[in-house]
Amino acid sequence: MKKDKIWLSPPHMGGSELKYIQEAFDTNWVSQHGSNIDEFEKSLENYLGNNSFVTALSSGTAAIHLALSLLDVKEGDFVICQSFTFVASANPILYQKAIPVFVDSESSTWNMCPNALEDAVKYCISQGKKPKAIIAVSAYGMPFMVDEILEISRKYEIPVIEDSAEALGSNYKGKSCGTFGDLSIISFNGNKIITTSGGGALISKSKIDKNKELFLATQAKDNKDYYSHSEIGYNYRMSNISAGIGRGQMEVLEDRIKQKREIHDFYKEILKDIEGVNLFSAPNENFYSNYWLNTILIDKKYLIKENIREFFLQNNLETRYLWNPMHLQPLYSKYKFFGNNFSGIIFDNGMCLPSGTNLTDTCRNRIFETFKKIKH
Ligand SMILES: *Cc1c(COP(=O)(O)O)cnc(C)c1O
């Protein structure tokens, strides 16, 4: 008999989600207003701290798109974006008909390389246009080199959009990811550390920004008695039903972070004697990762990546490739790229391992046994 599938990072409900959905039904607030939205936003603001203002939206992608709109990114503008990421970080640049400029990763966090970023900024300036934004990502939950990236942002006065879609619960020097950007985003997609079934949030530093976000996210209706519109708006608000799930999930966020980090320790333990498999971990104590997904690099001298993938598949264990960097994507390869293709090399040699917070001891054993059987 085939064993149950072990997924990469499945949704993991906490208990109160249904209660909050029921509340929405009971009060008939089933649309884009209601106490679930208010409470969900409040709990995120409390959790993130640092005077954050949170707008709950229909997706992380919508949050990035709104961030670009707020920063007045228009046709022909340059926007710098980390290459090693999920495609949703970059697509909103094209929605705005702006021009993406991609930046490679460095080896300590796998995120935006400050040197390559500065080269990219200088290139854009040499073309007569300062970039309108820098999209920096905390991939797999690992914070990017915050101090170094923010220093460049300040030096050239270019705002940072922090894509912390995968990094809720991570921090850098004790400060929460999702609070470093001029605008920051989080995703609540189904496989993220907590989910609203689908959703996202945009985080800003002022009530004025939040009001502007709400305005744009709800069709940009002018303050008139009749329908009057002077700007392009969107239908990007989160529903009060989804927010009910999020409200319940916030109650277990701390547990989920603990569980994710504990799974990382599990991998550290079982992989230490397996030659040719290197678990990716935080470079030092300044970087506190939620370890949304555990990732490994495989040394070709000892092991063949495709064999491992195949072997895991036979045992019904889901693995995934790492993000295939944007500069190598058919959609994006024609755009400028700065760096040495470190991200391309880790894509070639890396893999994501099952990291679900509901991973049982039996599942852990299966993973351990599978690793032990891999032929060297
Ligand atoms: C998931 C993700 C997004 C998009 O979030 P959605 O809520 O799925 O739209 C953006 N950036 C990164 C890095 C992601 O992992």
Describe the structure.
The chain is of the alpha/beta class and 376 residues long. It has 2 domains: 17-250, Type I PLP-dependent aspartate aminotransferase-like (Major domain) (Aspartate Aminotransferase, domain 2, 3-Layer(aba) Sandwich); 253-375, Aspartate Aminotransferase, domain 1 (Alpha-Beta Complex). The chain is built from 12 helices and 14 strands. An 8-stranded mixed sheet has the order 1-9-8-5-4-2-3-13, with helices on both faces. The chain has a 3-stranded antiparallel sheet with strand order 7-6-11, with no helix packed on it. Helix 1 runs antiparallel to helix 8 (240-250), helix 2 (35-48) packs parallel to helix 8 (240-250) and helix 5 runs parallel beside helix 6 (146-156). The protein is globular and about 70 Å long. The protein binds pyridoxal-5'-phosphate.
